[in-house]
Amino acid sequence: MYPDRVVSGMRPTGALHLGHYHGALKNWVRLQSEHPCLFFVADWHALTTHYDDPSAIETNTWDMVIDWLAAGVDPSQSTIFIQSKVPEHAELHLLLSMSTPLGWLERVPTYKDQQEKLADRDLATYGFLGYPLLQAADVLIYRASMVPVGEDQVPHVEMMREIARRFNHLYGREKNFEEKARDAVKKLGTKRAKLYHELRTEYQEQGKEDALEQAKAMLDDAQNLSMTDRERLFGYLEGSRKLILVEPQALLTEASRLPGLDGQKMSKSYGNAIALRDDSETVTKKVRTMPTDPARVRRTDAGDPEKCPVWQFHQVYSDTVTKEWVVKGCKSAGIGCLECKQPVIDAILREQEPMRERAQQYLDDPSLVRAIVADGCDQARKLAQETMRDVREEMGLSYN
Ligand code: TRP
Ligand code: SF4
User: Fold this and answer.
1) Could you tell me the residue range of the domain that residue 334 belongs to?
2) Is the shortest distance between the CB of 310 and ligand 2 below 6 Å?
3) How does DSSP assign 198-230, residue by residue?
4) What does the pLDDT look like over 28-71, one tens digit per residue?
5) Is the CB of 147 within 6 Å of ligand 1?
6) In terms of pTM, does the model score above 0.90?
7) Are residues 113 and 252 in the same domain?
8) What atom of ligand 2 comes closest to residue 340's alpha carbon?
9) CB 309 less than 6 A from any atom of ligand 2
């Protein structure tokens, strides 16, 4: 009914690193050639945790967009925009907030996790609790079918589905639809009518997909229903006939296989990152000073790649022949660690070369980036406005 559409966002954390590239951006670049894609800077989301210091948001936004473009996100294929430039996200967030149970937000795992992790900040705020609801508005406003996210964000997408379902249930009914549907249920016979109601409740209140499937199968088997009644009952199962908002699917992005220089997760705050646009000297130095298997104190000491972060880089960057050379050379002390690191350095520099080139034109002329984003904002706003028109109308707020 609605077109295939991918939506994803990132908070403006500033210059991105190779972990972001291998974890998310590479995936975006692939998706943009397969589906219509919208990618946005979640600047309001940055405020949910850093409301006390918004000074870096703007610079971080432009740096991050340049990195997206550098990585190959192509503005002729994807819509690139900034969340706060499409205020319809906020309007939908507000309207959804009216009917979203507090419990749904409180039980999202990232809520407590992040509060504990960022214990130095006061995150007992309304905005922080609403983080996943704003995220739901970001996606639902485009009626997106797919949301590429990392594992930690999957519960957020689950919640979006519940929110869409609830919204359709509350506002998508036709005139007298409920009454007609209830009459149709009676035609199923006492026993099946009771089962139908139970399954419907299980699906709508607890989101049990198997209850939905079971109910649909039952309707398929029911001989004595007219076509119209059958259709009504299918619609009533999911709460409505009209799908105002679409339930999106999470597209799970595989975790980046590229760790940081020390073997921990790559992160700017751990100081173990290689930035997407680090120059070749910096990259060379960073890799040359990477820790290796501690057993290799002297050149003549044999090592074990499994105990060495450089080996994990080879897993991402090297072909079979090189990897065999590493394992053999390391275990027999046939190669030195610097020698072993060279193919990794070469591969990273090769990977970054087109990125650095693409970035350069935008660094030379920042107005290009501004124009791409302005254009993306216009496109996104148009789509968002269409949805909001429907939403307002269904909620009785169109004032015609
Ligand atoms: N919460 C996401 C993150 O931290 C960012 C985000 C905001 C997002 N809105 C979104 C991701 C909508 C996907 C869809 O990475
Ligand atoms: Fe690591 Fe390579 Fe040195 Fe072995 S030879 S310890 S894999 S850097």
Assistant:
1) 277-364
2) yes
3) HHHHHHHHH--HHHHHHHHHHHHH-TT--HHHH
4) 999 999 999 999 999 999 999 999 999 999 999 999 999 999 99
5) yes
6) no
7) yes
8) 2
9) no
